[in-house]
Design goal:
With 428 residues, the chain is α/β, with parallel strands linked by helices. It contains 19 helices and 14 strands. The protein folds into 2 domains: 2-211 and 412-426, 3-Deoxy-D-manno-octulosonic-acid transferase, N-terminal domain (Rossmann fold), CATH 3.40.50; 222-409, Glycogen Phosphorylase B (Rossmann fold, 3-Layer(aba) Sandwich), CATH 3.40.50.2000. The chain has helices at 2-25, 29-37, 41-49, 66-79, 94-98, 117-127, 141-149, 170-180, 191-198, 213-225, 233-236, 249-265, 280-290, 319-322, 343-346, 362-370, 379-391, 393-409, 413-426, and strands spanning 57-63, 85-91, 108-111, 131-135, 154-159, 185-188, 207-209, 240-247, 269-275, 296-298, 310-312, 328-331, 352-354, 373-375. Helix 16 links the parallel strand 13 and strand 14 (373-375).
Length: 428
Amino acid sequence: MKKFWFVVYNAIAIPFLYTILNAIGLFNKKVKRGIVGRERIFEELILNAAALDKSKRLIWFHSSSLGEFEQAKPIIEELKKDSRINILVTFFSPSGYENSRKYPYADLISYIPFDTASNAKKFLTIVHPDLAIFMRYDYWPNLVWAMKDFNVPCFIVDATMKSNSPRSMFLAKSFHNDLFQNITKILTVSEADSNGFRVFGCTDEQLQVVGDTRFDRVYRKSITAKEKNLIKDNVIKDKKVFVAGSTWEMDEEVILPAFTTLAKYDNDIIFIIAPHEPTIIHLETLENEFAGKLKTIRFSSLNNYKDERVIIVDSIGILLTLYTYADAAFIGGSFRQGIHNVLEAAVYGLPVMFGPKIENSQEARHLLKLGGGILIQNKSDAYRQMRNLFSDKGYRDMKGRISHQYVQENLGATEKILKEIYKVLWNS
C-alpha cells in the first residue's frame, strides 16, 4: 500500500495543503512568516551544516512549536553532555523557530521544509542525521518514508494516541498503518497510548511506555526558579497568594468576580494574575475590572508596592517562577478551548483549579481524579472552592501534597528515552 498512499499524498494532499497554506498566508501574518522563512532554507542548511563536526553523531529533533520543544529540551540537554553528539532542531511554526534561534544546546536550528518528496530527500542529503526524533505528533509522511530509504532510524517521543483518534477511522487508518510501519520506536506516555498505536499494527518491538518528559522539564525548571527573587518579602509576608496563570477573557470572567468576593472576607489574600497575552488593552481591561473594588499594581511597578491586593503581570516568561510564591493556582485556557500546562503549578505542591475544558490534558484529568485538581464550572462554584481552600489550611495542604506526589511519581521519562537513543546510536 505504500506506493498507493505515496501517490495519493503527493498528488492530492500536498498540493491541496500547500494551496490552502498560501491562501491563509495572504491574511495571516504568522503563516506568512513561516512561508517567507523557508524561502532560503536549503541554502542556509548547506552553509550551516558544513560547519558541523562530521565525526560526531547528529541527532535531529523536530517539534511543531514551542510547547513540544519544551518537551524535547530535557533530552537534548542531557545528550549535549556527550561530546560525541551534535543536535539539529527544526520547527514547523514560526513562533517555535523565532523564539528558539538562540537555544544554546542546539548546533543547528532550522525550519522543517514543506513536506514534498523532493524536499524530504534534499533535506536528508544535506544534514545526514544519524537519528530522527519527532516530538509528540508532528511527523511528516514524506520525511518518514525518505528516512526509511536513507536507513535513518526514526523515533516518535512523548507519543500519544487516543482510542477514538480520527486517524483510526476509514481510509485514514490504512494510511497510518503504512506510515507507522516505517517508525523505528514509538515511545509513549502511557499504556493506553501504546494500545492506541497497536490499532495501526504497531508491534511490541516498536512500542515502549516511557512516560512524559514534561514532568522532567517542569521539575528541572522549578529548581532554578526557586533561586530567583522576583517578589520581595514585604509583598507576600503573612499573605496567602492565589496565582492565576495563562488566563484568557473567558477564564477571567469567572475567576475575577470570585476573587473579588473572597477578598471582602479575607484580608490576608492577594491575587497574582498572569494573562496569556499581556497586551496593553488586556492589561487595562483587567485594571478596569477591579476599579473601585480592589487596588491593583502591575508587576513591573512592584518596587512601588503599597499593599495592593491584585498584581497584574505585564511580562511573559516568568509564570513558572511566580507559582513558587503561590498557595493555590488557577490554570487558564480551561474556560476557553483547552487548558494550559497544569504541571507548572503542580510541581510546587499546589492545589490546582481549572475550568471544564481539560480534554486536551491528560495531566489535568489525572490530577482531578487523584484529588489534587479542582474543577470549577462557574463564578459561584469558583468562589465556593476558593473559600474552602483559603479558609482551611489543612485542606489546602492535603490537595497540594497530592499534586506534588503526582509529579514526583512521573519523573524519569528522559532517562528511559536516552537509553533507547543510545541503543540505536552505539548499541549500548
